[in-house]
Design brief:
Blueprint lengths: L2 H18 L16 H7 L2 H9 L17 E5 L5 E4 L3 E2 L7 E2 L8 E6 L6 E6 L5 E6 L9 E4 L4 E5 L8
Antiparallel strand pairs: 1-2, 1-9, 3-4, 4-8, 5-6, 6-7, 7-8
The structure holds zinc ion.
Zinc ion (ZN) binds next to loops.
Length: 166
């Protein structure tokens, strides 16, 4: 990479970070629940393990929750934490479950991700550190955010909508 390209890349990264979120200062304060890699392998199916623990991405339109419109709560498949309400789900056309907001801001943590030649914001579960997906700033709701989450990182619980009860 030449210097001009490097500088351009850095500038775009800074611009992106400035609009992505203001929660970054809090993201590293809590230690995720610690489990050994072996424990995660035993608890999760191979697909969920690859996504939650190795930050893989499921193929678009392959996940079980892409088109689900039922009322309920989407939990972390790794630890069961409440992450996204069906009320925040919308059809993004991307092939992944998409939400305008997490159920509470503290449920998720954000990390800069420059893998695959892109500057993105990775979304992880605050409680267990599991990779969930990415958040983008082109959402349709008041937040302006589009939380693009892998179905296999989620566990849907029908009929549950109030985060305080779960
Ligand atoms: Zn979790």
């Amino acid at each position: 990479m030449n210097l001009a390209a490097a500088a351009d890349r850095r500038d775009s990264a800074i611009a992106y970070i400035s609009v992505a979120t203001d929660d970054w200062s809090t993201m590293s304060e809590e230690q995720p629940a610690s489990k050994s890699d072996e424990q995660w392998r035993q608890e999760l199916d191979p697909n969920a393990y690859a996504i939650l623990r190795e930050a893989a991405t499921e193929p678009p339109f392959s996940g079980e929750y892409v088109d689900l419109k039922d009322d309920g709560m989407y939990h972390c498949r790794g630890c069961g934490a409440s992450l996204f309400s069906s009320q925040a789900k919308f059809d993004s056309g991307t092939g992944w479950p998409s939400f305008t907001d997490p159920v509470v801001a503290e449920a998720v943590a954000l990390k800069p991700d420059s893998s695959h030649g892109m500057v993105r914001t990775e979304v992880v579960c605050s409680a267990c550190g599991g990779h969930l997906g990415h958040v983008f700033d082109d959402g349709p709701g008041a937040s302006g955010q589009r939380w693009c989450i892998n179905s296999a990182a989620l566990d849907f619980s029908a009929g549950e909508s109030d985060p305080a009860s779960g």
